[in-house]
Amino acid sequence: MAEVNRAAGERPVAVGRHVRTLLERSQILHRETEGAFDVTSTPLSRCWGFLRRQGRLPTAGEIEAARGSVGMTHVTLDDRGVRLTRPGMEVNFNAIGKGYALDRVTDLLRRRGVERALLSAGGSSLRAIGGGREGFAVDVRSARVTNRPLARLRMREAALGTSGAGEQFFEAGGQRYGHVLDPRTGWPAEGVLSVSVVAADAATADALATAFLVGGAALAERYCATRPRTMALVTEEAAPDQLRVLGAHEGVTIERGAERVTAFPPPSVGEDRRGGR
């Protein structure tokens, strides 16, 4: 991708199969998430100083200038390769690449006969192959609730991606600014503390976790309502000890116990779908 980024605003660059696939998936997810997922947002991160982990409050003019180099509509993909049509554009697959790598490892393990495994990439991206009768146990936690998990998932044949807003931030004028930026406005996303998404593949789960962190529970609810194999677990800043569950996935059940979980809708999320393998 370095060559693609260097050629921004000038010419198309031939790319391999995996880069092409990631770009195609990113374009689809960009449309499906109403622009909340955007792999071209690096100029905004640089504008806010997050690339060097030295956050700064930019001027409105600086933000608008950076936004001029952001947008999936300025990425063209054809037989010649990939072209970023505006100077200063950059593509970064951080929000989808790790999950995509897990999916490729999953494909490899399946070809070699593996029927049961839980794959993890840094803890924020998981992929379950099989899972037995009980399913793999995975805890969903909040950085602000240290004495217990918010919920325990039982995963079979599903992927989980998690994104959080608390890892990197700075304060200016009494205001806290996080590193997760809304590519549609150029400003840090607000209101959501963390999001975990269950989907059929890890690339989609990772990308949606970032998108829902930006777009909030409202976007997650709209998305999951029309896609029956997607579940979003959202923790909001206003209630860090509570988990909103939106949608459902047949490969995942939730063990509530004493945890405070608000499910939308309750019937499908709470069913026990244990099966043998």
Q: Can you offer a commentary on this structure?
A:
By secondary structure, the protein is α+β, with helices and mostly antiparallel strands. It folds into two domains: 2-84, T-fold (Orthogonal Bundle), CATH 1.10.3980; 114-270, ApbE-like domains (T-fold, Roll). Helices cover 29% and strands 27% of the residues. It is built from seven helices and 14 strands. A hairpin with a 2-residue loop joins β8 (169-172) and β9 (175-178). The longest helix is centred in the last third of the chain and has 24 residues, at 202-225.
The overall pLDDT, averaged over residues, is 90
The description of the largest β-sheet is:
7 strands, mixed
Q: N-to-C SSE series?
A: HHHHEEHEEEEEEEEHEEEEH
What is the CATH superfamily classification of the largest domain? ApbE-like domains
Question: Layout of SSEs?
Answer:
Layout: H1 2-6, H2 17-32, H3 42-47, H4 60-67, E1 75-78, E2 81-84, H5 97-111, E3 117-121, E4 125-129, E5 136-140, E6 151-155, E7 159-164, E8 169-172, E9 175-178, E10 192-199, H6 202-225, E11 230-236, E12 239-248, E13 252-255, E14 261-264, H7 266-270
Parallel strand pairs: 12-14
Antiparallel strand pairs: 1-2, 3-4, 4-7, 5-6, 6-13, 7-10, 8-9, 10-11, 11-12
Helix pairs in contact: 2-6, 5-6
